[in-house]
């Protein structure tokens, strides 16, 4: 058996055999292509797409807190679009959402002011809440 024949591998999901060169795994291919629009995969980082459990959590969270503001965080290399909700005391939750438009529509529907976090940042009360919780050892 020649060396090249011993380097054969099966590509996952393709059902065919092929040779693998030393740097093949670093080349752009199906794993690192542009994000699919169907939500099954959201880019090369393979982050989980938003689902109904995320929307349900956001809905339950706003029903049990007061003085809530929403901060829409844009897609990054690591995360998909997220909606950060911050209550009056700085308590917060963050969940993935389908799109920036969906996040603003969700906030408008529930009469929550929403902002673009990339423009305005996150509120000081959230940082103070995190500091308090860290000091408490939680």
UniProtKB/TrEMBL annotation:
Specify the superkingdom. Bacteria
Q: Could you identify this protein by its name?
A: Uncharacterized protein
What organism does the UniProt record list as the source? Nocardioides zeae
């Amino acid at each position: 058996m020649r060396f090249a024949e011993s380097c054969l591998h099966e590509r996952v999901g393709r059902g065919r055999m092929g040779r693998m060169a030393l740097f093949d795994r670093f080349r752009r291919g199906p794993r690192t292509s542009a994000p699919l629009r169907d939500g099954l995969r959201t880019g090369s980082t393979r982050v989980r797409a938003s689902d109904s459990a995320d929307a349900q959590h956001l809905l339950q969270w706003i029903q049990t807190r007061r003085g809530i503001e929403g901060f829409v965080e844009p897609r990054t290399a690591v995360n998909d679009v997220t909606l950060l909700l911050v209550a009056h005391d700085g308590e917060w939750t963050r969940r993935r959402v389908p799109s920036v438009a969906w996040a603003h529509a969700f906030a408008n529907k529930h009469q929550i002011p929403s902002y673009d976090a990339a423009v305005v940042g996150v509120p000081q009360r959230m940082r103070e809440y995190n500091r308090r919780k860290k000091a408490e050892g939680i």
